[in-house]
Input
Amino acid sequence: MKRPFNLLILLILTLMSMNSQAQMPDTLQLTNGQVLVGSLVGWQNDRISFYVFDAGVVSVKATKLSILKGNLQQYRTETSIRKIFYGPLVCNKPGEFTFQENDQPVTVPFHNIEIITPYKKGGASTGFLSAGYNYAKSNGVGLVTFDAGLSYTSKQFMLTGSGTTSFVQNNKTLQRNREVVTFTGYRVLNPRWQPAAQLLYQRNLELGLSSRFLAGAGVFYTALMKPNCQLYVATGGMGTLEKTTDKQSYTRFEIPFILNLEIYNLGNPDLSLTHKQSLYIGTDNNKRIRHDGELRLNFKLTKSISLTTYLYDNYDSDPVAATGGNLDYGWTTGLKYGF
Output
């Protein structure tokens, strides 16, 4: 029984070896002359993740890279001015890639590269899951907050979804105290301007809000795009349907003004920061103003796991429920898994 099993293992290993030899691996050459052979996992800002066949995944600074050739598959490459290329990685000279645009060669220096991801089945996707301990103004120290997110990028569209739910203990029972779920879609037109649509769900018992649904469309503008820093702004119009904890319902129309700042690679350990401010101005007679803010820090512990901490605030100048307040805030600290 043991001999057939060993022969089966030998056959599988032989087929795997033949398959790997039939394909050219990716190669990465450093400025000191060292050459790594394997597979490109991804390029994020000034960090390159590369799988070496006999050493696992290694992280390389882009400043130490001389030549990178991707031979196994197609890649999606995004530059610092939001120009996007699809295809193999061709590196004819040290420090730059050559892409095809309208059947013409275009060279891009390494220092202008923002993101490179393997491109499969029409698009590239990323996501995360996190869980942490939370504090909320309304309930003091709470129990747990769960977060999740998923994004998908193709040649023409960018789709993102994220959600947060916080549980607190109230009269010895668990209660969903605060929730936010967001779905956003962008149509890729040019490096700066993108039309966008968004669906948003919110729940906040401190503000007397049982549920709020928002749907709208507008324009998304890239105000700043640097290797370690990105700034986006957006505006448009949104219809709102609200239900309060005292069983009242309201419909409104609001104009959002959204600002989102992302900063990467702030130090060692790898630290990133995201800061989002959303201001909603009502068009009815009382000129209601709402504000949602979040500041998030991520300390990368391993390739996939980060320690995350974020602070949030929610303000409403005209609370929807008679028993609701007009301000809520809190923080959450936990672990985040990216994939």
Remarks:
- The CA atoms of residues 125 and 152 lie 4 Å apart.
- Residues 7-22 have pLDDT under 50 and may be disordered.
- The longest strand covers residues 209-226.
- The chain has one helix and 22 strands.
